[in-house]
Amino acid sequence: MQAQTAVNTFVHETGGWVASQLEACTRCGMCAEACHFYQGTGNPELAPVWKVELLKRAYEQRFTIIGKLKLATGIDHHVTDDNLLHWSKIVYEACTLCNKCSMVCPMGIQLGPLIHEVRTGLSAAGMVPADLMSAVHKQEAEGSPLGVTDSVYDDRLEFFEDEYEIKLPVDKKGADTLVVFSSIEIMKYPGNIAAIAKILNAAGENWTLSHAGREVVNFAFFEGDNEETVLFLKRIFDAAKDLGVKRIVVTECGHAYDAIRWTAANLMDVPEGVEITHIAHLLGELVRTGRIKLKEGMYDNGGTITFHDACKIQRRGGHIQEPRDVLHVLAPKSFKEMIPNRAEAICCGGGGGVIAIKEADPYRYAAFELKVDQLKKVGASTVVMGCSNCRLQFDDCVQHFNLDVKVAGLSQMVADALIE
Ligand code: SF4
Ligand code: SF4
Q1: Which residues of 123-139 are buried (b: 16+ CB within 10 A; e: fewer)?
Q2: Cβ(190)–Cβ(179) under 8 Å?
Q3: 126 Cα distance to chain centroid
Q4: Which of 25, 89, 90, 99 to probe ligand 2 with, by most ligand atoms within 8 A of CB?
Q5: Which is the closest atom of ligand 2 to the Cα of 91?
Q6: How is residue 261 annotated by DSSP?
Q7: 151 contact partners, CB below 8 Å, separation of at least 6
Q8: 384 and 308 in contact (C-beta within 8 Å)?
Q9: Phi, psi for residue 300 in degrees, rounded to 5
């Protein structure tokens, strides 16, 4: 029954698209070499092309003579609930939807989006890991997967204002820019809120936060539930419309940026005339145009500084150069690149909802071993990033692997270096 629901969803969502994509596969294995979960474990079932095998089977069995013949002769079998369990494990626990596999595939097969379609089918069949579903349910019921309810949000705002001696504009009609934080920042990295407020004030930006649109993380997007993804996105878009802003700035969260910047337009009507950008882009723009001034070389005496490219902000979002421009001001002598970097960077292994799933820990740590290797090779004392989900993964893994590396957020480094 669950298998039928999943298969119907696969076929409905992907149709002939999956066939035209996967029939081009030459089994060259390049996508496997690009996947940090496959590389970290050596497990062939974690190869990207295997993660989408269910879609191929569903399409073949439903629409092709070969698929029907394979079934009739026993060469292939109908998709079963056990199959769904297996794929649920590999596409939720061992895939961050980082999309590096799509980038390297010589046949141009869009493996990342196809894996997201596998998640959509599994979500329809109710085969989503319990930890991830519990975060989705919390976001439905309370407006946030980390419990940032209305009253918690008010308490946190009061705390930020007292602790960091900063005034935070909330629900300010006529503001140009709506700034949307993730609950990871609100609950775990409060310094980010203070830092970004300080930067925007220094730049003279007319900005606001929103009560109704306070949470930009989208756990339904991780799950693959498109309807619910839209519901969570709508909260932000409605807040933007209500406040009449011209721009939405997503702070340090990569998947939230992907959902609102790229995915939303494929799922729903998005407000016209509202620019959506990421704080990494804005920081680059503020420095380039001289709207904020930074103490040059401020971080040059603390050992090697390197930058971790977040898959959804750099590879997907294209904000590759801006953080580097900023770091070349902050640490011109000690900034060094990990290899590979930029669009080819290795994912941290914690995105796509993986870090929220306890059973995924062994995969998550195995994938991070590739980052350990990169950090050691570059001799990093500090690793900087612009995604708080990556930062959670780095903070946890630095402890797990006992690394002597400081983990830093880009916005906080900028705020600390402001010349006011
Ligand atoms: S890289 Fe592309 S062509 Fe090669 S095995 Fe993977 S999906 Fe197939
Ligand atoms: S999207 Fe990233 S994590 Fe997922 S299979 Fe492809 S390379 Fe691996």
Answers
A1: bbbebbbebbbebbebb
A2: no
A3: 23
A4: 99
A5: 4
A6: I
A7: none
A8: yes
A9: -80, -10
Say if residue 49 is in the same domain as residue 161.
no
Cβ atoms of 229 and 267 closer than 8 Å:
yes
Task: Judge whether 54 and 90 are in contact, CB under 8 Å.
Answer: no
199 lines ligand 1 (CB under 6 A): no
Q: Which of 103, 127, 151 is at the close of a domain?
A: 127
Reported pTM: 0.96
- The domain in which residue 149 lies consists of 131-288
CA distance 217 to 387: 12
Q: Are residues 237 and 372 in the same domain?
A: no
State whether the beta carbon of 28 lies less than 6 angstroms from ligand 1.
yes
The domain spanning residue 397 has which CATH number?
3.40.50
Whether residues 15 and 46 fall in one domain: yes
Give residue-wise pLDDT tens across range 4-25: 998 888 888 877 788 788 889 9
Q: Ligand 2 in contact with 189 (CB < 6 A)?
A: no
pLDDT (tens digit per residue) in 138-182 = 999 999 999 999 999 999 999 999 999 999 999 999 999 999 999
The gap from C-alpha 19 to its chain's centroid, in whole angstroms, comes to 27
**Residue 51 in contact with ligand 2 by CB distance below 6 A:** yes
Distance of CA 165 to the CA centre of its chain: 31
Instruction: Quote the CA–CA distance of 156 and 250 in Å, as a whole number.
Output: 19
Structural element, H or E, at residue 149: none
Of 282, 318, 10, 259, give the one whose Cα is nearest residue 139.
259
- Token pair 């799933």 is found at 357
Q: Which ligand ends up closest to the CA of 49?
A: 1
